[in-house]
């Protein structure tokens, strides 16, 4: 007999009598599972706290977690809430689908645990997490509406609101107002209130990315806890936007002209972004001035209130182009002088590839505008190439047609005080001018979001033939987003 090959005799299960290999419990697997529950002591229901204001989960003691439903982040958060799991071996965990509005999260968990010495069992079970509504401290401040830690006071000292109308759309597109507690209107701008200081500084960084602003900070002590040495301040940021706007006529100061090499100081502002874009309408030279603008702080000498309507009588290209712009010699007459006298003007314009014979165009007539001498200091003793400076093409035939727009823009929820309410008539006029500017400038439309107006058909869908001005840049249906109901946020 070979003693190296020993056979182990089976034994009978002490419960059911089935023949099994020997083990410390002397029971088969089925009976062992019926007698021993390795999930004992593990709670099958756990409560988690969820802020219904910001959608974050409370991670004790005072941390808040952002996690999407059935995400790995939320799965890890739920498992950490089951503190008993550190006494067993976690094999697998997966989500069990539940209705998103049921306030229930279910996870199927598989664990291993030693039932007896040398005997390891594996079992799967479902744990239900009850989502309880809760308010985080930040949302408590938001609901209070009178509690704020930081305010961003945005100002522009001009006689219109077009810059803020454009900035409002840019803020909505990039959702920069998501942490804003409230917005209040003032005659020269808007105040943005925040409950967390970091949110205000983040908003300030956003403004710096879209406009060449300057700002000052001030803080005031509100409370002081002597025992914990905790100070609470309120922060105020005074933010100023340059008074230079699109289509304004600017005369550079003497020092700036010298830095640019002695070029003509009379320029047009043709675009505003995080830098100011200036153009010499007689040579097509361009200059970009960013935050260094505040070293000179010059103002415009003419704005849109001084624009007059002219009619193009003759145009002759000069074969000088730069991008979409081209120089041309043009003969124009005031629209108000047609049929009254034969006064005409010869000038050079940067709109050579846009204007045609018979078109209407807006421009500045320096001979009839009363300009402050301090704003034109660099032109003293110098002659201007032409007193007529054309700015942009007009579409009077299109404007005479009374029609309802098939698109609209969103609006911020702005509080208005009765005592300091902005002139509603001026505001409506600025809004209409802003909407017209969006219609005429596809590049400007690309910076914001436009939405369909339900029940209003586009001119392209109605098959209407427009009266003249075939080059009018109509808002296309492909540029619009689906309607979102009430276009007010």
Notes on the protein architecture:
It is a single chain. With 489 residues, this protein is an alpha+beta fold. It folds into three domains: 36-134, Nuclear Transport Factor 2, Chain: A; 148-241 and 401-489, no CATH class; 265-394, no CATH class. 18% of the residues lie in helices and 35% in strands. The chain is built from ten helices and 26 strands. Mean pLDDT is 83; it is low at 484-489.
Short description:
This protein has about 500 residues and is an alpha+beta fold.
Count of discrete domains: 3
**Fraction in beta strands:** 25-35%
What structural class do you assign from the helix and strand content?
alpha+beta
Q: Tell me how many strands there are.
A: 26
Helix segment tally: 10
Helicity, as a percent range: 10-25%
N/C terminus separation: 92 Å
> Taking strands numbered 1, 2, ... along the chain, how are they ordered across the largest sheet?
10-11-9-13-12
Roughly how many Å is the radius of gyration? 36 Å
Major sheet details: 5 strands, mixed
Low-confidence stretches: 484-489
Silhouette: elongated
* Nearest-integer average pLDDT: 83
């Amino acid at each position: 007999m070979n003693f190296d090959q020993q056979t182990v005799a089976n034994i009978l299960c002490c419960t059911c009598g089935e023949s099994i290999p020997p083990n410390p419990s002397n029971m088969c697997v089925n009976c062992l599972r019926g007698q021993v529950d390795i999930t004992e002591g593990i709670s099958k229901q756990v409560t988690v706290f969820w802020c219904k204001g910001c959608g974050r989960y409370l991670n004790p003691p005072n941390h808040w977690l952002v996690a999407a439903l059935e995400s790995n982040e939320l799965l890890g958060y739920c498992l950490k809430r089951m503190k008993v799991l550190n006494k067993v071996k976690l094999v697998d965990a997966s989500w069990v689908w539940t209705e998103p509005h049921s306030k229930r999260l279910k996870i199927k968990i598989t664990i291993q645990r030693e039932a007896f010495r040398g005997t390891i069992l594996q079992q799967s079970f479902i744990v239900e997490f009850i989502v309880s509504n809760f308010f985080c401290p930040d949302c408590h401040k938001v609901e209070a509406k009178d509690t704020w830690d930081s305010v961003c006071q945005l100002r522009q000292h001009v006689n219109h609101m077009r810059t803020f109308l454009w900035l409002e759309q840019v803020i909505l597109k990039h959702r920069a107002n998501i942490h804003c507690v409230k917005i209040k209107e003032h005659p020269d701008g808007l105040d943005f209130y925040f409950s967390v200081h970091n949110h205000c500084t983040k908003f300030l960084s956003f403004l710096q990315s879209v406009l060449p602003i300057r700002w000052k900070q001030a803080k005031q002590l509100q409370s002081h806890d002597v025992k914990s040495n905790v100070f609470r301040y309120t922060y105020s940021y005074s933010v100023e936007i340059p008074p230079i706007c699109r289509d304004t006529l600017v005369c550079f100061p003497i020092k700036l002209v010298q830095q640019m090499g002695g070029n003509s100081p009379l320029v047009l502002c043709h675009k505003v972004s995080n830098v100011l874009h200036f153009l010499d309408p007689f040579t097509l030279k361009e200059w970009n001035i960013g935050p260094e603008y505040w070293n000179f702080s010059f103002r415009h000498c003419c704005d849109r209130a001084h624009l007059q309507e002219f009619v193009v009588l003759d145009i002759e290209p000069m074969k000088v182009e730069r991008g979409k712009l081209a120089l041309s010699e043009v003969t124009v007459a005031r629209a108000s002088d047609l049929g009254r006298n034969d006064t005409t003007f010869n000038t050079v314009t940067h709109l050579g590839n846009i204007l045609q014979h018979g078109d209407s165009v807006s421009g500045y007539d320096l001979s009839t505008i009363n300009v402050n001498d301090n704003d034109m200091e660099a032109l003293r003793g110098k002659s201007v190439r032409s007193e007529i400076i054309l700015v942009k093409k007009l579409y009077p035939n299109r404007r005479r047609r009374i029609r309802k727009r098939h698109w609209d823009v969103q609006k911020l929820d702005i509080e208005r005080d009765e005592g300091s309410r902005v002139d509603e008539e001026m505001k409506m006029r600025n809004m209409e001018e802003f909407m017209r500017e969006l219609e005429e400038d596809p590049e400007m439309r690309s910076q914001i979001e436009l939405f369909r107006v339900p029940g209003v058909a586009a001119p392209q869908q109605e098959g209407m033939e427009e009266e003249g001005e075939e080059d009018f840049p109509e808002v296309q249906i492909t540029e619009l987003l689906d309607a979102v109901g009430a276009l007010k946020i």
